[in-house]
């Protein structure tokens, strides 16, 4: 085997954030081997990685993180030195419909990976980087920000499963000395995001003149971060962050859902040559999400001060490039929004 400087296992690399993570690592570190392990659930798509799939420092393995034997084999075969763990069930609405899948993938899958890493790595220079979410902190009122020290208070089955996985990651550090790092990020947007999440769903519906379903009053607030800035932050933490620490990653970019959807409508009125205000007429208020968290907002002071990371683009720039990507990649969207997704979408939204 070639003498790679690191041999990094990226889990969930065929998904939205994972594919951006793999692309960054493969292109930036020619002396690292990047092994992408993904089960290819509905959310995993190897099309996302077409541009790097032939790279000499990239390998793909189709496997489930819950399968101990498969994970042990991958550690053995590729002599894995580090893990960046992104594989998860990631959609809050789906977690409300079926929490058990989230426990299996997010909790059991994470414990499984931790355990193999603990058994295989004995001392030496390793990192197990766990990618988590700000949703573990619960919901904010009008004031305040999530800090790394904010008490965990997850409220959806998705965030409860991610919070649980974070606790296990920390437990493996304290109990077995596994060299872990955790990052908790706000809402991501960008290319290759599955169109069940707010921004790609709205872009796709506007293009097709379909209703734009706003849950409740649309006053819930999210902090939006460009996915490329997120994976750059992970790269920084993975290489320079302190072992055993958590880092919050955010964009200082809060929007109510309604304002954000209206903004997308205006961008696309212009892009699609429609009359000003035409897309806004598609906005439809639908039944609220059960237990809908009111507001997420991140205090990113720790990563800014310790690791000198800040977002590289404004929201206006990031969103413009994102809209452009979806308009230029209609085949990608068509492929995904047919079949099983179509049925899911119709059940989720048309019955609300
Ligand atoms: P995604 O749903 O787009 O991708 C998840 C990937 O994991 C898919 O490729 C899927 O096939 C794979 N996967 C799922 N279960 C698996 C299993 N059992 N074994 C192997 N692979 C499996 O998700 P995403 O939005 O890219 O999120 C990636 C990670 O980042 C998740 O851990 C998520 O909790 C976290 N995160 C996401 C956001 C966000 O805004 N999307 C924000 C903060 C943190
Ligand atoms: P989402 O993209 O599912 O991310 P998360 O729930 O993890 O924050 O949703 C973002 C926000 O948009 C959330 O407040 C729910 C709301 N939302 C809608 O109003 N309509 C929709 O069709 C979707 C998917 C989300």
Topology of this protein?
Layout: E1 6-11, H1 16-28, E2 32-38, E3 58-62, H2 68-78, E4 82-85, H3 92-97, H4 99-120, E5 127-133, H5 157-176, E6 180-185, E7 187-189, H6 198-207, E8 212-215, E9 221-226, H7 227-240, E10 246-249, E11 254-256, H8 257-271, E12 283-286, H9 301-307, H10 315-328, H11 330-336, H12 339-350
Parallel strand pairs: 1-2, 1-4, 2-3, 4-5, 5-6, 6-10, 7-9, 8-12
Antiparallel strand pairs: 9-11
The chain binds nicotinamide-adenine-dinucleotide and thymidine-5'-diphosphate.
What would your notes on this structure say?
With 352 residues, the protein is α/β, with parallel strands linked by helices. The chain has a domain at 6-189 and 225-250 and 292-314: NAD(P)-binding Rossmann-like Domain (Rossmann fold), CATH 3.40.50. It has 12 helices and 12 strands. The strands form 3 sheets. Strands 3-2-1-4-5-6-10 form a 7-stranded parallel beta sheet, with helices on both faces. Strands 7-9-11 form a 3-stranded mixed beta sheet. It has a two-stranded parallel sheet with strand order 8-12. Strand 1 (6-11), helix 1 and strand 2 form a beta-alpha-beta unit. The radius of gyration is 20 Å and the shape is globular. The model has no long low-confidence stretch (mean pLDDT 96). The structure holds nicotinamide-adenine-dinucleotide and thymidine-5'-diphosphate. Residues 11-12, 14-18, 38-41, 43-44, 64-66, 86-90, 105, 109, 131, 133, 162, 185, 187-188, 194 line the site of nicotinamide-adenine-dinucleotide. Thymidine-5'-diphosphate binds at residues 92, 187, 197-198, 201, 213-215, 220, 222, 257, 289.
């Amino acid at each position: 085997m070639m003498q790679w400087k690191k041999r990094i296992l990226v889990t969930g690399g065929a998904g939205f954030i994972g594919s951006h993570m793999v692309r960054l690592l493969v292109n930036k570190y020619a002396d690292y081997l990047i092994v992408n392990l993904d089960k290819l659930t509905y959310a995993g798509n190897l099309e996302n990685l077409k541009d790097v799939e032939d790279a000499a420092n990239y390998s793909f393995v189709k496997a489930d993180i819950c399968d101990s034997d498969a994970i042990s084999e991958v550690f053995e075969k590729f002599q894995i030195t580090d893990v960046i763990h992104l594989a998860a069930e990631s959609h809050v609405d789906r977690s409300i419909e079926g929490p058990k899948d989230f426990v299996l993938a997010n909790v059991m899958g994470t414990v499984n990976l931790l355990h193999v890493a603990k058994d295989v790595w004995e001392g030496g220079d390793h990192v197990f980087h766990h990618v988590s979410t700000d949703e573990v902190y619960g919901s904010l009122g009008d004031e305040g920000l999530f800090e790394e020290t904010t008490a965990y208070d997850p409220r959806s089955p998705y965030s409860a499963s991610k919070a649980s996985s974070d606790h296990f990651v920390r437990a493996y550090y304290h109990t077995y000395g596994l060299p872990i790092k955790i990052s908790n990020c706000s809402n991501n947007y960008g290319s290759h995001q599955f169109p069940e999440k707010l921004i790609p769903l709205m872009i796709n519906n506007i293009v097709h003149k379909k209703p734009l379903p706003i849950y409740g009053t649309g006053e819930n607030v999210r902090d939006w971060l460009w996915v490329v800035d997120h994976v750059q932050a992970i790269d920084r933490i993975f290489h320079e962050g302190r072992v055993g620490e958590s880092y919050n990653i955010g964009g200082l970019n809060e929007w109510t859902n309604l304002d954000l959807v209206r903004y997308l409508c205006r961008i696309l009125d212009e892009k699609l040559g429609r009359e000003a205000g035409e897309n806004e007429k598609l906005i439809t208020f639908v039944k609220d999400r059960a237990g809908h968290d009111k507001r997420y907002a991140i205090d990113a002071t720790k990563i800014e001060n310790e690791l000198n990371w800040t977002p590289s683009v404004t929201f206006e720039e990031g969103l413009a490039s994102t809209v452009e990507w979806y308009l230029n990649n209609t085949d990608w969207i068509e492929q995904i929004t047919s079949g099983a997704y179509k049925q899911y979408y119709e059940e989720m939204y048309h019955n609300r």
